[in-house]
Amino acid sequence: MSKPSHAETRHKAIRPIGGYVLADEPLELNAGRPTSTIEVVNTGDRPVQVGSHFHFYEVNRYLEFDRDAAFGMRLDIPATTAVRFEPGDRKTIALVPFGGKQRVQGFNGLVDGWAGTGAPGYQPERSEAAARAARRGFKSRPATSEGDGTGTPATSRKPSAKERRG
């Protein structure tokens, strides 16, 4: 058995067992997916931290924002990260729709069903969630100047890596 070359030894040393070798260029999150921006204000007296895959519609009742615009959406940040809202903080955040079948089981019990946006005529879960949120004191306000003037949040689509390269 011959001794491995320096390159082979180095390659094996930096890759853990079962690990992946990724491209040198950075990966872009949610490329080609639609995004929306909304303004959020923490009206409570405690900090609130929201994780990357939490259904934003159901975040803490003292975070005030356009909840309707956040239905079926999560933060547009890397997995396992979070955004922290200190008392009185006002932040503009980016949201992206859930992928897959868009079935959401919310952790505050407001939503338990399909949370997609593809069929606006079929949204019983959305109207039921709005009624539950109002009954339980979740703060909400319509979009202001950030949208198109109709209460719709500013929306865009991230170009995919292929589109950016031309």
UniProtKB/TrEMBL annotation:
Residues 118-166 are annotated as: Disordered. Pathway: Nitrogen metabolism; urea degradation; CO(2) and NH(3) from urea (urease route): step 1/1. Its EC number is 3.5.1.5. One of its GO terms (molecular function) is urease activity. One of its GO terms (biological process) is urea catabolic process. One of its GO terms (cellular component) is urease complex. NCBIfam families: PRK13203.1, urease_beta. This is Urease subunit beta. It comes from Dactylosporangium sucinum.
